[in-house]
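Technical annex, item 7. During the second reporting period the consortium partners agreed on a shared format for inverse folding records so that results from different sites could be compared directly. Each record opens with the tokenized structure and is followed by the designed sequence. A conforming record, contributed by the partner at site C, is shown below for reference.
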């Protein structure tokens, strides 16, 4: 069900302050805290004594103390102290997880710690690059994380789900090109000589006909970078000339909570009008509202799937090329890891 030997986003860095943070990831309870130097740590959220959640305890320097009987655990999962006795019983250590704070997110490796390589963290530099303004959030979604990945790889839904923000009537009329680069999947759509979407009109004052792009890159298991923008029609945007237009990056990372729920982390970045705080506020509201529309449709979809008869089979359409490629890659990676 879940790929474990990979990096997942566990939290925004601002979510982790002086107190601990409890979060269920891949069906496992995890407690996060910062040590005395401010570095993030992650442990199994379960005391080895009587299984009380450590997240109900207190952070003490580099350690966290259970709020039930006071056992003290270090960031490596080792039990440092048992109140009322001088020795620590064998087998009292709990699991610790590799964690890294990067690009304003806290990343966690849920699989074999020996394989946790920081170089494998996917590129989301826009989230703290001084050349970009980025804003984002986390949504809790009552749906399978793979449904949200499917949603992001097939943007034909923009025309219908996001009609008032991101969509125009022309979106689904233009075909997509699906490409593989190893285990990366690229889904490209160019919408030539059409009206700009409402949000682009507001953000950049573009009113005439435009050439518009949606260039998606998926990285297993659930990281999606979307290069979106538009430029005046006929100015060569498809050949790389974006001088007469605007570019934004809509970036997404989805972390499974359970088989039917997930944490949806996103940020939206632009490299123009960086000092315009009103524009920043507008884009945060517009993009957040649009992505929440996705949350709504995914949760409705999950309920429909749960109530479907056993013989119900979902069909595929032409726009599903990227969805099917990513699904096959993910299934293979999970199968190889399980084996």
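Designed sequence (site C submission):
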């Amino acid at each position: 069900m879940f790929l474990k030997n990979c990096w997942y986003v566990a939290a925004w860095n601002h979510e982790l302050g002086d107190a601990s943070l409890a979060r269920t990831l891949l069906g496992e309870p995890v407690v996060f805290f910062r040590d005395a130097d401010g570095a993030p740590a992650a442990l199994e959220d379960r005391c080895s004594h009587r299984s009380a959640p450590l997240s109900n305890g207190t952070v003490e320097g580099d350690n966290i103390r259970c709020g039930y009987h006071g056992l003290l655990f270090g960031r490596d999962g080792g039990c440092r102290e048992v109140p009322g006795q001088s020795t620590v019983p064998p087998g009292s250590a709990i699991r610790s997880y590799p964690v890294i704070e990067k690009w304003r997110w806290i990343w966690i490796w849920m699989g074999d710690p020996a394989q946790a390589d920081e170089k494998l963290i996917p590129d989301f530099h826009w989230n703290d690059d001084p050349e970009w303004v980025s804003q984002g959030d986390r949504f809790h979604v009552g749906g399978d994380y793979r449904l949200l990945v499917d949603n992001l790889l097939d943007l034909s839904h923009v025309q219908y789900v996001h009609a008032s923000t991101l969509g125009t009537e022309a979106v689904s009329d233009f075909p997509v090109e699906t490409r593989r680069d190893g285990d990366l999947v690229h889904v490209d759509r160019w919408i030539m000589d059409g009206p700009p979407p409402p949000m682009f009109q507001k953000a950049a004052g573009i009113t005439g006909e435009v050439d518009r792009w949606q260039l998606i890159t998926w990285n297993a298991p659930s990281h999606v970078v979307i290069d979106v923008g538009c430029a005046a029609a006929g100015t060569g945007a498809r050949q790389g000339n974006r001088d007469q237009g605007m570019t934004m990056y809509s970036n997404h990372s989805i972390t499974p909570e359970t088989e039917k729920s997930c944490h949806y982390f996103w940020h939206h970045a632009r490299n123009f009008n960086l000092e315009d705080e009103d524009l920043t506020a507008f884009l945060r509201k517009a993009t957040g509202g649009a992505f929440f529309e996705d949350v709504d449709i995914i949760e409705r979809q999950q309920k429909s799937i749960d109530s479907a008869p056993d013989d119900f089979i979902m069909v595929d359409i032409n726009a599903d090329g990227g969805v099917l490629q990513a699904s096959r890659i993910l299934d293979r990676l999970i199968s190889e890891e399980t084996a």
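The CA atoms of residues 186 and 217 lie 5 Å apart. DSSP finds five helices and 18 strands in the chain. All partners now use this format for quarterly exchanges.
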